[in-house]
Amino acid sequence: MVDWILRGGDVIDGRGGTRYPADVHISAGRISAIVPSAEPADAAHRGEPVEARILDVTGLVVAPGFIDMHAHSDLAVLSDPEHLAKVRQGITLEVVGQDGLGYAPVTDATMAAVLDQIAGWNGKPALDYAWRSIAEYLERVDAGTPTNVAVLVPHGATRMNVMGMDAASASSEQLEQIREYVAQGMRDGAVGMSTGLSYAPGMYASDAELEHALAAVREHGGYYCPHHRNYGSAVIESYGDCLTLASRAGVPLHLAHCHVNFPVNAGRAPELLAAIDEAIAAGDDVTLDAYPYLASATYLASMLPGWAQSEGADATLTLLAQPESRARILHEIEVTGSDGQHGVPVDWRTISISAVSEQENEWAIGHTIAKLAAQRGVAPGELFAELLIADRLGPGCLMAVGNEENMLAVMRHSAHTVGTDGILVGAKPHPRGWGSFPLWLGHFARERGILSLEAAVQHATSRPAARLGLDDRGVVAVGAWADLLVFDPQTVGSPASYDEPTLAPTGIPHVFVNGVPTLLHGERTRALPGRAVRGAGYVAAAEATSMSSETPTPKPEEPTR
């Protein structure tokens, strides 16, 4: 039986080929037929009763749903059944567990620490947080989510499980414990491992420690996704270290939020891209993701030097409160460039507050540190320290440090995929969480013509699917999962801005996840058809020999919460 027929549109299949007119049929969660418009609408189903719902998509494009290769929706997919930020963009699959910091695998102590550390990314929504392993987290996803979800093993969390926030080198025994956490995460269904090498505690890990952990990733068919050590003063060298490490470890490499930022690096993207091309020519498997905005976003405390974060949040707050240690911290941030600030002395005019944990600190949201300091008649560094203390390290921030020439060069590259890096909490979050994909299609493809529309779709669909090892997602093809997006090529775009970051995209009326509409005529349905997408190393608990990268087939009539 056919559940849906998307009739009268043009198909962009995600592989880069020219669009063509066709009807797309959906049955039991998958694409069951693609019927060229010149043929009778039921040609592929002669002899079958066609009881489908017909969706007229005349004048629109039917494309694969978008794959967000860098998502911070770890908690949002469980706590927010609407998830409008991602659903309205046409996103049907998100990869979480990014930047070495995530919520599985964790101990009780690590869960508490991570919740505090990255509250500026994800907040602390009302969940029970009872899961500890990646298997348990993905079981939560399988209960029904707005999008499909894949997960990376966050290296920093595994290190925290073993060593806390200790800055020391891992012992032989600790190396084995970290590696086993990674290996079990891969068996639980992770698609790879992420690192956060400018965030504590990942910043304390040696390359030898990372290579030891990556052996487990290699053995289970995953990839390495680094947030590397230095996006500022040593950015090209730091990217080079990632290329070298992945090649030596024998794992595919996916460079997270691959931007070449800060004024000191203007015009240097070609150096990075040449190094990537050289690695690919030598046989290495390299991809990257980038979001189409110039500002970046993170949590404010990430700017602190590594030594100030090595004993946990309470110790960090004590260091900020003591005059001598505060002076040392601010000297490193403002004068020499701290490791947390990528070795570049901060310009407080470029750092604005996007979110806070405590209501009494909302006065800071939407303003730069420089402006707030001037209003209060204090030095910017003092304002920074006092705000971190008052909000217990909770603020999120935006950093206006991008370079358009570099960004365009990266986004044109054949290794590029799209990742929102979307931080969805706070009163003034980064608009990338609401607008990356429609901005990519509307502004950069249609208006600026940096790529054809077909190529732009490929960057957002089949290319990331290939990185994830999925041949039945990211394409409009018979037998593929019906993760589909319907958009108007003339109007698709995003009005979201830094002043109004959560404005809804335009030109995206319909979205399907596993054959079930999550957006219909521009309105969010109540459906939660998303499921876990598990990696190649997955070993089912009940079937030790079963290996799978597929999700269960959701039923169109499946109950929603």
UniProtKB/TrEMBL annotation:
Residues 54-517 form the Amidohydrolase domain. It comes from the Bacteria. Pfam families: Amidohydro_3 (PF07969). GO terms for molecular function: hydrolase activity, acting on carbon-nitrogen (but not peptide) bonds, in cyclic amides. GO terms for cellular component: cytosol. PANTHER family: COLLAPSIN RESPONSE MEDIATOR PROTEIN, HYDRANTOINASE/DIHYDROPYRIMIDINASE FAMILY MEMBER. This is N-acyl-D-amino-acid deacylase. It comes from Microterricola gilva.
